[in-house]
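Appendix B. One record, verbatim.
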Amino acid sequence: MNQLVGKTLNDRYVLQSLIERGTFQAYDPHTNSSVILKLLLFGTEITWDTVRLFEREANVLKSIDHPAIPKYLDDFEVETELGKGFALVQTQIKARSLKDWVQSGRTFNEDDLKAIAKELLSILKYLHHRQPALIHRDIKPSNVLLGDYPSGELRSNRSGNHLGQIYLVDFGSVQTATRPDGTRTIVGTYGYMPPEQFGGQTIAASDLYALGATLIYLATGQNPVDLPQREMRLLFENQVRLTPNLVRWLRRLSDPDLNRRFQSADIALAALENPEPEKISTIGLVTQPIGSKVAVTKTDNTLEVFIAPYGLNSTVCFLIFFTVVWDTFLVFWYRTAILTWSIGGWIAALFGSLHLLFGIGITYGTLFTLFGTTEVEITRSQIRYISRLFGIALFYRTFLREEISAIKVSPRSHKDTGEGKIEVPPKLILWFGGQKIELGSGILNESDLAWLAQELSNWLNLPVTK
C-alpha cells in the first residue's frame, strides 16, 4: 500500500506514511492535525468477517469516550487505484507501544508493572462495565502505548517512579458480550489468547489473561510463546525479580483455567492494591498446628522449610536401649562364631552378619528420626533438599524449580505383609518427573503435613493431590 502515500482521500485526508499494513498516518487540513487512518480495501484476502469487524470497530469508537482510548473522527467509503473499500479515521496518539519500548532496550521494574497494570485495569473496567460489555480480545504489547503527558512532563506513579500515560488501541477485534448461542469469530494473537478464546468464547476474564501475558512479557522481555509451559501455564518465575505477592497475582491473572483466574477487572485491581497472601493461603484450609515441628521462613525470593527431629520420649529411649543391646549381642556372637573356626560357626557368623546389618539399619533409622533434620530451600530458580544427622549433611539434592511436577500427601495407612499388617506413616512427596523426595515420614503428623503441603502449594502454585 506504499503507493497510496501522498494520495488524498475523501477530498480531505492526505496519507503521509504507512505505519503498518492498512494503517496510515494522515494529515487533516480542516483541523491542521495528524490523524490515524485505517483502510480496508476489498480483495482476495478480505472476507465478510473482516468487513464486519471493521464496521464494529467504527461503531464501538463512536460509542465510547475515554482519555486513554483513541477517539472516532470519521468513516467513509473510498475508491483508490488499488480498489474500493472503507476508511476509518481516529485521533493520533503520540506514544510508542510497549513492544517498541522493550525492543529498544527499556526495562520495567515492579513499580512500573503495577502502575501499567492499574492503568489498564481501569480502562478494562470502563469497557467491561458498559451495557453490553465490550471485550477487547487483542490486548498485547503492540496495542498498549506508553507516552508522556501533553505538557511533556512525566507523571509519578504511586510508588514514586515516573511513567508516561498509558493508552489502549486497536479495537478491530472488539466484540460485545453475546449469548452462548451467538455468532463467534476467533480473533486475537497467539501467546496472549486464553484457551477459551481459541474455542470462540470470550468474556471479561479473557482480557485479563491477555493483560497478564502482556505484563509477563514486560517482566521477562520474552514473548509468552517462547517461555516454558506446564499444562498451558506460563513458567516465568525464575526469570524475574519480583516479590512473591506480585508473582502470585500474575499467576492468577494469567491462569489458563478460567475458574481459577480473576473474574473481573475490579477483583484483579483490588487484589493488586491490597494483597493478602496469608489470608488467601489459609481460606478454607488449615493453619499451622500448635507445637509443629515445621518452621517455614519466607523472604521476597526464597521459601525455607526446616523439619526438626522427632525428639526423645520413654518409648523411644527403650527402643534405643534395646537396639544397642541387640547390636552388641550380635557383635559378640559374630566374634565367637569366627573364633570357633568350624562350619557351624561360619554359618552362625553369616546369619549374625545379616542380623548385624539389620540392626545397624534400625539404629540409623532410629537415630535419624530422633536427631535428623530436613531442610528445603526454594528460590526463583531451584529447589535444594538436605537431610542432616548431628549437623552432617548425609543427603543433598538440587532440582530446577520448573522440574517440579506434583505435590502429593500420602495419609496414614496399613500395609499387608502376608504375616500381618504394619502401619505406614503419613508423608509428603515432591515429584520431579520420575524422581521424588519425601518429607516428614515418621516425624510429622497429618496436621503438620497438611499445613506444609498448603504452604508449598501456595508458593509453587501447584495443587496438592493425594
